[in-house]
């Protein structure tokens, strides 16, 4: 069964980004539960920012799960990237991600590599960048396996990376590199920009699909843009997808409205 999740950001430097809830962890989790979400996806400044016992007690009390944890703060705050020209920055990027894998792993949640993949540049040509990325996914995928969770890799749109922008290129990266325990994240906002057909993109991801960012064409909550969700839901059903569809959307017009709109659309499509 497909499960619902909603994003919570505690990263002040990411203000204005596509996260539904902000700043107040306990209050946001309370709202997520009241609205009927199964889980929360957490975007945190780092692995030590939230006390683990405190988070565990909130999850138990509210009967919520952690769907995934983001690693983008490594880029947003520390300017780290797995494909940086400077090797210490690449090493620190891996270390930051390992620590986020350990944090998420404690809650049975995978870590997501999105912006931390970086991009190819004049200094780091495409084959070199793809080599760095593949090597990192190898190591970090195996590392995540210690917690019995996968690692999640997210192709992004062309304005955010120039490495993998479609599901097909993500599959190619994983299969060519023989990368194990790494799943793909299908973000419907990025796919709306890059894929010929979003449904076909999902089917191309196939067994590699591990997580979905559930959002409309304009990055508002599902139902607030011009995305055709029926073929998307049909493709997920065809795949037998049983992971999360997680609302990574702007808090527009406000957090509660975006969350309520998301769960309403989710129920229409998947319940
Ligand atoms: Mn995303």
Structure description:
- This protein is α/β, with parallel strands linked by helices and 271 residues long.
- It has one domain: TIM Barrel (Alpha-Beta Barrel).
- 43% of the residues lie in helices and 15% in strands.
- The protein is built from ten helices and nine strands.
- It has helices at 25-35, 52-62, 73-76, 87-105, 126-145, 167-176, 188-194, 198-205, 229-239, 255-270; strands at residues 3-9, 21-22, 39-43, 65-70, 111-113, 151-153, 182-187, 209-213, 244-247.
- It has an eight-stranded parallel barrel, surrounded by seven helices.
- Helix 9 (229-239) links the parallel strand 8 and strand 9 (244-247).
- Helix 4 packs parallel to helix 5 and helix 6 runs parallel beside helix 8 (198-205).
- The longest helix is centred in the middle third of the chain and has 20 residues, at 126-145.
- The chain is globular.
- The mean pLDDT is 98.
- The protein binds manganese (II) ion (MN).
- Manganese (II) ion is lined by residues 114, 154, 187, 213, 248.
């Amino acid at each position: 069964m497909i499960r619902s999740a909603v994003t919570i950001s505690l990263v002040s430097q990411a203000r204005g980004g596509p996260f539904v809830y902000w700043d107040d962890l306990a209050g946001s989790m309370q709202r997520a539960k009241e609205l009927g979400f199964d889980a929360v996806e957490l975007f945190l400044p780092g692995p030590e920012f939230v006390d683990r016992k405190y988070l565990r007690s909130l999850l138990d009390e509210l009967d919520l799960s952690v769907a995934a944890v983001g690693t983008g703060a490594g880029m947003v705050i520390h300017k780290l990237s797995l494909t940086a020209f400077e090797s210490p920055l690449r090493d620190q990027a891996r270390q930051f991600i390992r620590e986020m894998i350990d944090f998420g792993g404690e809650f049975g949640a995978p870590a997501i590599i999105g912006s931390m993949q970086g991009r190819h540049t004049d200094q780091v040509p495409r084959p070199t960048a793809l080599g760095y990325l593949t090597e990192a996914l190898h190591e970090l995928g195996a590392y995540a396996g210690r917690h019995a969770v996968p690692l999640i890799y997210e192709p992004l749109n062309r304005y955010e990376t120039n490495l993998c922008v479609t599901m097909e290129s993500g599959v190619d990266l994983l299969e060519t590199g023989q990368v194990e325990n790494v799943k793909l994240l299908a973000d419907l906002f990025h796919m709306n920009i890059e894929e010929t057909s979003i449904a076909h993109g999902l089917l191309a991801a196939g067994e590699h699909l591990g997580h979905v960012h559930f959002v409309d064409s304009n990055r508002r909550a599902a139902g607030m843009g011009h995305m055709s969700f029926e073929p998307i839901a049909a493709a997920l059903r065809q795949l037998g997808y049983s992971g999360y569809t997680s609302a990574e959307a702007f808090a527009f017009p406000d957090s509660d409205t975006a969350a309520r709109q998301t769960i309403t659309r989710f129920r229409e499509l998947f319940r």
